[in-house]
Amino acid sequence: MKSRNLLALGLATALLASCGNGTKNQSEHQGNAPENKGPETSYTMTVNKEKLTWIQDVPGEMKQGKQTFPSIPDSLFEATGCQDGIPSSMSCFLLEAEGEKVLFDAGLGKEGSLLIPTLKSMGISPEDLKYIYITHLHGDHIGNLVKDGKMVFPNAKLYLNKVENDAWRAMEQGNEAQVAMLDIYKDNLVLFNAGDTLPAGVVSMEAYGHTPGHTIFQKGLFLVVGDIMHGLRIQLSHPEYSPKWDMDPETATESRKRVIEMAKRNGLIMAGMHFPANGFESFAPDLEFSR
């Protein structure tokens, strides 16, 4: 299929993180064009009146190398042009659909975090948000939820897969920050089961392995895949390689293969928290262009 020139869409070159040959991505559907809200930190796609914005929480270019993927041979890093590491990011997504706004994950939350400033630049204060859907409880996905022991999003319902909640609460160590956050949000916490349909018509799906209850979410053509891939440029073609952070690598690999196949088969647009800028990877045939 023909690729479209990114320059024609006015997307700055700073957005183009890649290694080796660029892969295909998406920009428009039925006349809806992307909005560039600051090319290095956010990017919005609109598909069938549903809007999804990639928000880069940690600024600057990130790369995943041998420390992250010790099982990937040097020859594959070199063959894909990723000798210096696989382009990545630490990101969140905001969905606007059916009159609602939904935040998927909440970033790392360290000094310099861009999530809250970016939301404010979009006219959204933390108090405005009603729904936050968490893919899993690793620290780089919940970091902006709490500050000084208080909820940053006091009016938001925090949705979490019950499997993930129960697993982290049952851990004997390494779960202190997670349990503390869950306790702070206890009156706002909504536990769901994989397969449940959540507000704004978002369907939850299990993608276990990275963590015990790692969950992905679908709304229309958008598929928010969380941490299904940390090194998109290699894992998309070689899903057999797991990063060191997969808690159950075998199950994570099975989930990764299944999710990629589902996206390809159904022509979906994947949105990943560790995908390189601009955060999307499309299998929708009429939405493709070169990154």
The residue fraction in helices comes out at 10-25%
Percent of residues in β-strands: 25-35%
List low-pLDDT spans. Answer: 1-18, 20-39
Number of strands: 19
- List SSEs in N-to-C order: EEEEHEEEHEEEEHHEEEEEHHEEE
Radius of gyration: 18 Å
Backbone structural class: alpha+beta
- Strand order, largest beta sheet: 2-3-6-7-8-11-12
Major pleated sheet: 7 strands, mixed
Keyword list:
291 residues; alpha+beta; 7-stranded mixed beta sheet; 6-stranded mixed beta sheet; 6 helices; 18% helix; globular
Explain what you see:
- The chain has 291 residues and is of the alpha+beta class.
- 18% of the residues lie in helices and 26% in strands.
Topology, pairings included?
Elements: E1 24-25, E2 42-47, E3 50-56, E4 62-64, H1 74-79, E5 86-88, E6 91-97, E7 100-104, H2 115-121, E8 131-133, E9 146-147, E10 150-151, E11 157-161, H3 162-170, H4 176-184, E12 189-192, E13 197-198, E14 202-206, E15 215-219, E16 222-226, H5 232-235, H6 249-266, E17 269-272, E18 280-282, E19 289-290
Parallel strand pairs: 7-8, 8-11, 11-12, 16-17
Antiparallel strand pairs: 1-19, 2-3, 3-6, 4-5, 6-7, 9-10, 13-14, 14-15, 15-16, 17-18
